[in-house]
Every structure is written in C-alpha cells, then in structure tokens.
Amino acid sequence: MTETHATTTPGAPLFPPGRYGRRREPGRRRPWLTALLLAVVLAVLTVAAYRLYQRYGDPTYDAQVITYTDVTDTGILVDFQVTVPPGGSAVCVVRARSADGAEVAREEVPVSARPDERAVRVQHRLTTSARPFIGEVVRCRPPS
C-alpha cells in the first residue's frame, strides 16, 4: 500500500524525509542585477572606446594620395594632400611597395601649412631599392 499526502500534487516525486538533504526553494529572479551588470559593461566599453579614439583616431591629420607618377627602377614621385589644423604641421609616413607587396621605400615627410591653410598639397620623391608598383601615405601625425 502506498502512502499519499494531501499536500503533494499528483505526479510530483515523493522523497523520503532526510534522505536527499534539504530541497532548495526555487531561486528568485533578479532582473535589476542583470540590468546593473549590463550598464557597467556598457560604461566600461564606452570609456575604453573613447580613450582609444583619443589616442589613435585623430581625424585632424588626414592624408589622401592624389597620384603617383614618374615610376622608375629606383624611385617614384608621390603627390598627396594632407589636412592639418589651420597653420599647423604634420609628419607623414610615405612608402612605396613593389608588385609583390614588399616595401621598397619608406620615409617620414614633414608638412607645414600657411597660417590660413588647412589643406597642404605635397609632392615627394622616394628613392627605392627595387622597382615600385605603388606609392602611398601610411599615416600622418602631429610633429613630436
């Protein structure tokens, strides 16, 4: 004969008392804790993105290659434009690569703007160690 209790629901398992330890109450959900953790993670990511942008993402110094011409076995003429703060200056890294992608020349080129200018157009001749395929401006930064 089986023992039935009035407080047990049919289909619920019946465990002998003391045999399996204390049964846990169903856990309470804490949506405020999840929201708080999400807010903290978003704040940390925002601060990290802002600091990285301050350090590496300076849109004040922007360079665009207009053309590269006069390609010979020993050099290339790179024509580029640099945007700097009004009357400011910059140092741009200009390089040439061969057809297989190897770097065949690299130079730092100082660029200065007149007091009323923001865009400076520069032509610079790179002397290369092999025949170049392309001339490019890697980056521009404020002078040290």
UniProtKB/TrEMBL annotation:
Polar residues compositional bias, start-end: 1-10
Keywords: Membrane, Transmembrane, Transmembrane helix
Transmembrane stretches, start-end: 32-53
Chain positions covered by the region annotation Disordered: 1-23
InterPro entries: DUF4307
Superkingdom of this protein's organism: Bacteria
Pfam families in the record: DUF4307
Name of this chain's protein: DUF4307 domain-containing protein
